[in-house]
Fold this protein.
Amino acid sequence: MALTSGTKFGPYEIGSPIGAGGMGEVYRARDLRFDRTVAIKVLPSHLSDNAEAKERFDREARSISALNHPNVCQLYDVGAQDGISYLVMEFLEGETLADRLHKGPLPLPQFFKISVEICEGLEKAHRSGVVHRDLKPGNIMLTKSGPKLMDFGLAKPTVQVATSVSGLGVTVSTPAASQPLTAQGTVLGTFQYMSPEQAEGREADARSDVFSLGTVLYEMLTRKRAFEGKTAASVMAAVLERDPAPVSSIQPAVPAALDRTVKTCLAKDPDERFQTIHDLKMQLKWIAESGDSASSAALAAPAVREKGIPDKAAWIVVCLRRGLVARRTLPFLLCLQHEKRTRRELDCPSVWGSETVPGCSRWRFAI
């Protein structure tokens, strides 16, 4: 049953409804002690008598209470009154990323700013032992101060898919440290954004969030979902078996390095993704700081290859010319290329005069 305006939960007075989901009904409310607007999330009426759902609700609250970060929606309080459990959270003004994407893909400067800040919020969560497991544009609020992650799941990474599926969302259960929760309840994933291991009921960890964030980045750049289908089953099949079209095939102006970054996030095998959100964040920062140079380098490399220089070495040459690689580090990179890619001796003068690359007698380059 929906709460009416004026209902009080301790020092909080309910105002108007904001929205509702599988695990909560959210209301705008007033904190009478501090005269501030807050958001109150309560268990939906059909779960109000479910002891395990209440326990899950409380455990989720305890998990996210430690996530004090500018890019995470802050939890203020937890309580229960008249048999109704509630969470008191920061009230966010703005629009969800999902609503923003209805207007079109994000320009690259805005994309990089938002995506890096999302990474920073997730990095804080992962370091605190919390895996989101339901990361999607609808759970990211764009505010004046930056993006805010909302609706975190439980800290325990292991999930088991339950038998009940509703629409394109899946109901799962999560074992807890002290007392397993086996009943259905928390919607921890949406098929279009869920990692393959989650969809198969295998153990999920922080790399599952990397995959889900990859689907969000894909949509931010293209305005298209990475995985689509007419039914839940067809969407799941796409997640498990198919790779989305390259970002650059939809948005040709996207730098090749960014295209590869999104593709790496969406690898089916968790071991082939970025292993931490921090790694992904640093990659995005590097591409952003490089501007269009990385894309220019990718276009220039074929012309250099015609002179007989191997692919990756050609890329390094172009990056050096554009100031993306320090000259001091180039010898080691070239030596690495020699060891991995070729043993051909290049007959050209060296920028180091008669010097050879340390540890390698063959590589000599003209820049």
About this structure: The longest strand covers residues 12-21.
